[in-house]
Give the backbone structure.
Amino acid sequence: MSEHKTPIGTPAVRRLEEVSAIDCPCGAARRVFSREDGGPLGIHRVTISQDAQRHYHKNTTEYYVVLEGSGEIELNEERVTVKPGDVVYIPPYTRHVAKGHLEIINVVYPPLDPADEYIDE
């Protein structure tokens, strides 16, 4: 007999076209699932533009899933070319910036807290 588990949070479907883009250090993000949803992680569709800013997080782990475009990502001053199909792992305290024009899915754990974004000046 299998044990019935109660889901954490409320199941939901979000439509990307119904989520407004907001400015972020990488360009513009559509935060499809975020901290306010009460789930264990955040899911964002991000348009990375040429004016991205180097930043880091103290408490956040990120994965970038590259969907479209071309460019490079700098991870603690090491630059790597990225293309569609690549997945980038960014642990806390990693200074990072993406350059070029990229569309990514950003998986964020725990869900992004805007107070945990630190911009390198």
Notes: The mean pLDDT is 91. The two ends are 58 Å apart (CA to CA). The domain at 21-119 is CATH 2.60.120.10 (Jelly Rolls).
